[in-house]
Fold this sequence. Notes:
Elements: E1 6-12, H1 19-22, H2 32-50, E2 55-66, E3 75-85, E4 91-99, E5 104-116, H3 117-126
Antiparallel strand pairs: 1-3, 2-5, 3-4, 4-5
Amino acid sequence: MKIGDTNEVKRVVTDEITAAAGGSGALRVFGTPFLVAQMENAGLEYMARELPEGKSSVGILVSAEHTAPTPVGMEVTVRVTVTDISANGKIVDFDMEAFDEVGPIGKGHHQRAVIDVERFMGKCYGKLEK
C-alpha cells in the first residue's frame, strides 16, 4: 500500500439502489446510502488486494457529499485514492470522487482499519455469550 494508489468501482444505477428503494428519499435516483456503500467497496477492494490471507479491513469513518442526482440506467464511477497510512500500517485514509456519465456527483473521505479476521469475528460473536 502506498499514498497515491487508486481503485475504481463502477455500477449502473438500478431501481434497487435508488433513494426510494433504500428509504433515504422518495425519488427514483441513485441513493446516497448506495454512494457510501460504493465508496466503502472501492476501499475494501483496494485493501483486499494488498493484505495477506487472514487479514481484512473494516470501514471506521465515512464522510460524503452527494452533490448531483443520477438517473436509473446511468453508470456511476467511484474512485478512491490513498491519502494517508498510519505509522503502524493499520489505518488507511482515502479521498473519494464520484462521477456519472455527465460529470461529478459526489466526494468524500473514507478510513479503513486492518483487522485479523479470526480475532475480529471472535470478538463480534463473543457478544452473544454475554
